Amino acid sequence: MKTQLxxxxxxxxxxxxxxxxxxLDPAFAAATGVDGGxxxxxxxxxxxxxxxxxxxxxxxxxxxxxxxxDVSLALPRRxxxxxLERMDFFRIFGDRITTNADLExxxxxxxxxxxxxxxxVNFHTEEEIPGIIHRISEILENQxxxxxxxxxxxxxxxxxxANAAEHGVSSFGAYAAVQAYHHIVSGSRRRGEEVxxxxxxxxxxxxxxxxxxPKYAEETATDNDALxxxxxxxxxxxxxIGRGGGLAxxxxxAARSGGSLSLRSGKGRVTVYESRKNSRNxxxxxxxxxxxxxxxxxVSSQQETKG
Length: 307
Description:
Layout lengths: L2 E3 L12 E2 L5 H7 L7 E4 L5 E2 L1 H17 L3 E4 L4 H8 L2 H5 L4 E2 L3 H5 L9 E7 L5 H14 L4 H21 L6 E11 L6 E11 L4 H6 L11 H8 L15 H11 L3 E13 L4 E21 H9 L1
Parallel strand pairs: 1-3, 2-4, 3-5, 5-6
Antiparallel strand pairs: 7-8, 8-9, 9-11, 10-11
Helix pairs in contact: 6-7, 7-10
């Protein structure tokens, strides 16, 4: 008998029809109970996929493909399959899952590089990271970010990716995806630009990584405790000088721009905004997940151009 995994795709508001990481929570909760038989995931209500949803879906499918004899994906017959093809999703998973999408016709579509996205990329080693970071820098430059902004963002994201490669020791390593948008930016109703960055790995998670350092024993009682501590400067599982700044710096950069950083691992999730830090319990995530929102309102972009 086929196990049907459910989604929680919002049907109202600005996030209506959008596949986010949170949309996959019911599927992740049920995935821990799969018994090796066929599994189906229904994405027919999805109208739009953001990078976080794409990386989350990749991590979920990696988890399922290792444990199930057959994994099927039902997609809407609209723009979503074309977007997934453009983001290289089917190049990675096309031979590993069954789907109702016509992959042959999708593969024949003309592709172009709009300068606003980094396709879904799978990486395992630090040697692969410079290419990812270079692409992120290009996207930021295309969106008008100044050199010093790009250097700050990319240097810290490089450490986040390095953490994913180092601690994401699993069969699939880590995934990253990036896209820039022109829409209503996060946290406000002002129109502007926003760059969304998502990174997911299949490693042991933040709590176990930090618990290897004895001085963090009191800070890792729960997954959320470990996540909040990991967002402080200088905190790393290795204890090496110069490590442990990436997450804190990226969170600060995102918050100052009116965006956010969301860190998820195990059953915890912590999101950092400009003036607050929220944590909540969520279904088990097999590894560590980072989502960064970097918005720029039209007003701030014009002010920086004049400066």
